[in-house]
Structure formats: structure tokens, C-alpha cells
Amino acid sequence: MPIKSEKFRQFKTFSNCFTYLFDDYILENKTMELFGKWKTEYFKNANPIIIEIGCGRGEYTVGLAEKYPDKNFIGIDFKSNRMWTGAKQAMEKKLNNVAFVRTKVEFLDKVFAFSEVNEIWITFPDPQEQKSREKKRLTHPRFLEHYKKFLVPNGTIHLKTDNHKFFEYTLEVLKSRDIQPELVSFDLYKENGSIFSEVKNIKTYYEQLFYEKGHSIKYCKFNLK
Prior knowledge:
Elements: H1 4-13, E1 17-19, H2 38-43, E2 49-53, H3 59-67, E3 72-77, H4 80-92, E4 98-102, H5 108-111, E5 117-123, H6 141-147, E6 151-161, H7 164-176, E7 183-185, H8 197-200, H9 205-212, E8 218-223
Parallel strand pairs: 1-4, 2-3, 2-5, 3-4, 5-6
Antiparallel strand pairs: 6-8, 7-8
Helix pairs in contact: 1-4
């Protein structure tokens, strides 16, 4: 397997990988070239777009793309050496409904146009447990407002985490916004109903790691008002 620096180099050459950073666009306040054109110019279809924020190695992005060829999936992360794994797998499996973008969450409204994204997956984000870092939590109200800039109205958000405090925090935020989650589980892998079977089929690297250590996996699905 290539070393970290080689993964960085290769990521830039992969046809399913893109970058949106300060030195590329932000300083000039430009949107990404595919802004508003993901379906027409990259995927070349009218299928829904689902993004995974903090996709890491891209297990979820690639796994979902394999399972749902009638949908488009885009993994988002700041570390391209992580996404290299998923991007390479997607190319080897000839998955045309997958892409990866190296950027920060704060810039996603420059990557996607209004209503361009149908669903968001947030998988095992940094819980930012210190009170002083609350605004960095990916379910903080400022981020929920940010997602509304590119998510379809009443669009779906999925959250998976092993952190109990972060999960409780998220539920409190949703309650304060009068959002009733469609699905909630404090221990996903103890759920027996088929209603949760889909979200148990694919495990990210961190999910498998936490699960093997005995951590309970929390899951929440809600529609953003």
C-alpha cells in the first residue's frame, strides 16, 4: 500500500476525486466547478445525491453505492489519504455513482447548490466534547442551518456515533427545533426489527473498532426543517 505522501499525490489524479480548499477557490469566493452540475456533468443522470460527511476511508460511501446503483454518493473529508482507500475501491469496482471531495464542512455550500443534495450521512464525527468546542459539533444549530443551504427542503439526515453525550446533545438540539426524529436507537445492534436492518449492513472502520470494544452504537434519522 502506498505511503501517505503517495496517497496524497494519487488522490489528485483520480478521476472520481476533487478538492475545494482555500488556495483553490475560497480566497476569491468562487464556487466549485461542479457546483449545481453534479448530476449533469459528473454523474450524468438525474438520480438523488447522498453525501457522507467525515467519510474517512469511504466504507459507507462505497458500500451504499454498491447497494443502490440508482443513487449517487459523494464522500466528504479533509484528509485525502483516508479517502484514497474508498476512491481506489470505487474505481476498481467500476462504480460510476461515487465521488470524493476533499474540503471542510464549512465550505459545502460552495460545493453544492441549493437543493442539490437529497440526504446526508454523518458517521462517527469528532464529538467535540469540551463545552468550548460545542459550535464545532456537526449537529450544532449553526451546522443544521448550513446544511439547509444545499439539502432539499425537509431532507433526510442520518447520524451514527458511539458517543453518548454527543448523541444526547443532538437529540436536545432537535427537540429545541421541534424536530421529531423518524428513528432513534441508543444501541443499534441490539435492535431486532427490520426497520434498522439497512443501517446495520455496512460498518465503517471506526464503527467496527468501537463495536468490537463493546461500545454501543447510536443511530438517529431525522428530516431537517
